[in-house]
Design a protein that fits this description.
mainly alpha, two-stranded antiparallel sheet, 2 strands
Length: 339
């Protein structure tokens, strides 16, 4: 038998690629340094060295960050969810109506006041899961495009939020319910949610099935995955997390209003896309979305720090979202050429 061997000249070292999250982290560092330099030029002070500013920045994006964790899973599965912001408003109103104190004379349900915090929280999560189930069933079994199905749910949920108390806000929650929005609790809740679903997406069948469906739904079906049932799970998770975010934001402000969560779904999608989640499905990670969330927060906080008018901030935010989508399209074309 003739021995076979390979000479050093014949061995081609495969180029080592950095994880996508590392590249996104470099972008975050670059943007932060830009604002640091601009801060010294225009404001005469540091942008990054203010602990209070960084705390406020993280608090501002943590609630939308909770939503973005669910939206990330939906996008990886090949779908989209436009109903998240409306679910925030609807569940905030619904849950807060069961979280009021008895000393408030105009409670929505006077006979159901001073309830333990777990009661309105569970009711809110169940309401979110119901909305997610409706989204999932519509998308999985009626073949309605996710954009249309969740658009319909978005309008319906917002209408429910306005109808529930005829547009009147709901206030005066119990201390137990208010606790989930107190201090840095929104950040703690976000980190717990992100950690749980990072593990779920990377190490469990749930995550593997989600990636498989997003990459090629037909191939996933042939390999034995119940695509329809799994899609329902993904949308239930996303809406439940939106419901959680709604209760956190209501507890933080100690009031619930029908207009809460307006355009939160767009910010959550932007965080995911900036974090490297592909709108074509099958690619992305929770860690990438977390970095995208911080990038989003740094940009908004940086604009405020530089005293840029709010309407300019909105316009620039739109440009950033479009740029992130263009970058995603470019990445997909680059991958398709290599394959």
């Amino acid at each position: 038998m003739q021995d076979t061997y390979t000479t050093g000249a014949e061995i081609k070292a495969a180029p080592r690629r950095l994880p996508p999250e590392v590249n996104i982290l470099f972008v975050l560092v670059g943007i932060a340094l830009v604002f640091e330099i601009l801060g010294w030029i225009f404001q005469g002070q540091s942008f990054l060295m203010s602990i209070d500013r960084l705390k406020i920045m993280i608090l501002q994006v943590s609630v939308i960050g909770i939503i973005s964790v669910g939206v990330t899973q939906v996008i990886i599965s090949g779908g989209i969810d436009l109903s998240s912001g409306s679910v925030v408003g609807a569940v905030a109103m619904f849950a807060m109506s069961f979280a009021q104190v008895s000393t408030y004379a105009r409670a929505v349900y006077p006979e159901l006041t001073d309830l333990p915090a777990i009661v309105p929280i569970l009711l809110g999560l169940l309401a979110g899961a119901l909305v997610g189930g409706i989204n999932g069933v519509l998308i999985a079994y009626t073949r309605i495009p996710p954009f249309i199905a969740t658009l319909g749910t978005m309008v319906t949920a917002r209408g429910f939020a306005k109808w529930y108390t005829k547009g009147q806000p709901i206030s005066f929650p119990t201390d137990g319910f208010a606790f989930i929005g107190k201090g840095m609790m929104p950040v703690v809740i976000f980190l717990l949610v992100a950690a749980i679903f990072h593990v779920a997406m990377k190490y469990t069948r749930y995550g593997k099935f989600t990636y498989a469906i997003g990459a090629n739904a037909q191939a996933a079906r042939v390999s034995g995955i119940n695509v329809e049932k799994h899609l329902i799970k993904v949308y239930v998770v996303a809406a439940t997390l939106a419901a959680l975010a709604g209760m956190v934001v209501a507890a933080r402000g100690q009031t619930a209003q029908a207009g809460m969560g307006l355009a939160y779904e767009l910010d959550a999608i932007a965080m995911a896309v900036i974090g490297g989640v592909s709108l074509t499905g099958g690619r992305g990670s929770i860690i990438g979305t977390m970095i995208g969330m911080v990038i989003f927060g740094v940009i908004i906080s940086g604009f405020t720090f530089l005293r840029l008018d709010a309407y300019y901030q909105e316009m620039i935010k739109g440009v950033i979202i479009v740029a992130a989508v263009v970058a995603d399209v470019y990445r997909q074309k680059k991958r398709s050429k290599k394959s």
